[in-house]
Amino acid sequence: MALFFVGSWFAQSVSGVSALNAERLRDRQAPFTWFDYVLSADFWNRTLQDWQSELLAVASMGILSVYLRQRRSPESKPVGATHTSAGVEG
Predict the structure, then answer these.
(1) 38 CB contacts (<8 Å, ≥6 apart)?
(2) Pairwise CA distance, residues 89 & 14, whole Å
(3) Where are the domains of the chain?
(4) Quick check: pTM over 0.85?
(5) Environment class of 56 (CB within 10 Å of its CB; exposed 0-12, middle 13-18, buried 19+)
């Protein structure tokens, strides 16, 4: 998972500096280096917004899957019940 995190972070930094430099060159400004872009507020703002939305989505799915699974579903059993009691009403 750490490799995926670092890989996605690096890919986002490369694509971000590329897009920023395209805008800067269109406006006839000096391009940013990758290192300067990684230290910039723009990069960290984009990165933290992306990870915040991903973590919120994963947390929502996890919490809702537990909550919805335990809501009197005929396929579920009470928490703490043995595996052999599945399908037995009680």
Answers:
(1) 13, 17
(2) 57
(3) 13-59
(4) no
(5) exposed
Label residue 47 by pLDDT band (50, 70, 90): confident
Q: Tell me the average pLDDT across 21-31.
A: 93
Estimate the crossing angle of helix 2-26 against helix 41-69, to 10 degrees. 140
Write the CB contacts of 47 (distance below 8 Å, at least 6 apart in sequence). Answer: 9, 12
> What is the number of other CB atoms lying within 10 angstroms of the CB of residue 45?
10
Q: What are phi and psi of 11, to 5 degrees?
A: -60, -40
Q: Which tokens is 84 given?
A: 């052999």
Distance of CA 8 to the CA centre of its chain: 10
Q: Which residue has the tokens 């230290």?
A: 39
Tokens, residue 45: 């703002």
